[in-house]
Amino acid sequence: MHGDPTSPRQLSLLEQVFAVKPREVSGSRSSNRVDWQKSWAFCLLLKLHRTGQDYLVLFDYHDDVVVLDSGANPTAIDFYQVKTKKGAHWTVKLLLKREKAANDEELNSIVGKMYANKVAFPTTARTLNFVSNAQFAIKHKDDPQKTINVDGFELAELCKDTLKEFSQAIQQEHNLAYSPLCDIITRFSTDPLSLDGHATHTAGEFASFLNEIRPNGKFAAVPGHRAIATAIARKTNHERSPGTKEELISLKGITRAEFEEMLATIVSHEEQGERERWDAINQALTAEGYPFGEVNRWRNAFKKYAVQRMDFSNTVLMATQRAIKSAVAAAKRANPSLTLRELISAALQRFDAMTKSAPIPFSRDYLTAIILFEASEE
């Protein structure tokens, strides 16, 4: 009956992604060595962000990289398997080759792994993608007698005999009673990201991206690139299974909103601007009679925090930052006329009350520096 409260609720796509457990638990361990994959994922984030559309990127969960079309209410998924190859092309034989496990059981081929995502998410998988630094040797449907090297292709572009090989291989691996090749877009792509210089290439892409969003601006491109790359690496390498869909996003994903926060922090980190910010704080502290030694300790902590706040993978610092921002805002709301001395005291009291049961690995000087920094940002 329509509206029957006893009928089971259909899971949202995000709930399905969490509920369907990944087929390989060893993926994160092997991905620790795949730095090219992480650099490629960084560049993909920049590409997605340029579109202006919402997204959620998951790292090494169900596939090497998974993109959902929304961070809150997704309806479609694009899957990416990312592999490097030196000195040779990918052939049909390699793409369909099945290795054997230690127990002599046949594993899925590259194409079989790709299609496994269609099996797991039959109505919401939008595209299956294989990305590499190497080209592909294929026989195209327009000239089926000749093998050519290409930078990319879709299965529908292959000659009839090769397409039949793919179809039969997938049917056999997944015990399908039908030809699976017409029910989803399946792409193979060569990416220009350098195999040996991928980190430098990605840093250059990021600098260009920052210049697009803030032309002629001065920002911390190098530490910013390092901070985001570290966050991607940590999420890719994280091996503990998430307990909820929210934890899945926190541990394995980056949403558009989260990436916006990262960018805002990086763009606001201008050396000249921070010197001017500290000069204004220093004048206020001096006018209120703080001793030189105390101010100098806070200055050193301030400089340290200005850099460390861009380490988005430092979850303890990020949580401390959020708590202090909340404490500063609440203190200002309670009394907009607070002196800087009063604001420091009130914010620390509120912070202590919020975190009384949690161990805080930061000194009082460092916490004071965060208060000064965040208060001067508002």
Task: Give a summary of the structure in a few sentences.
This protein has 378 residues and is of the alpha/beta class. The protein has two domains: 253 residues, no CATH class; 108 residues, no CATH class.
Strand order of the largest sheet: 8-9-5-3-2-1-10
Structural class: alpha/beta
Annotation field: number of helices: 15
Q: How do the SSEs run, as a string of H and E? A: HHHEEEEHHEEEEHEHHHEHHHHHH
The low-confidence parts are: 1-7, 25-33
Number of domains: 2
Please tell me about this protein's structure:
The protein is α/β, with parallel strands linked by helices and 378 residues long. The chain folds into 2 domains: 13-265, no CATH class; 270-377, no CATH class. The chain is built from 15 helices and 10 strands. The protein has helices spanning 13-19, 27-31, 35-51, 92-96, 110-120, 160-174, 198-213, 221-237, 245-252, 256-267, 271-287, 292-308, 315-334, 340-354, 364-377; strands spanning 56-59, 65-68, 77-83, 90-91, 125-132, 136-139, 147-150, 152-154, 185-190, 253-255. A 7-stranded mixed beta sheet has the order 8-9-5-3-2-1-10, sandwiched between helices. β1 (56-59) and β2 (65-68) form a beta hairpin. α3 (35-51) packs across α8, α5 (110-120) crosses α6 (160-174) and α13 packs across α15. Residues 1-7 and 25-33 have low confidence and may be disordered.
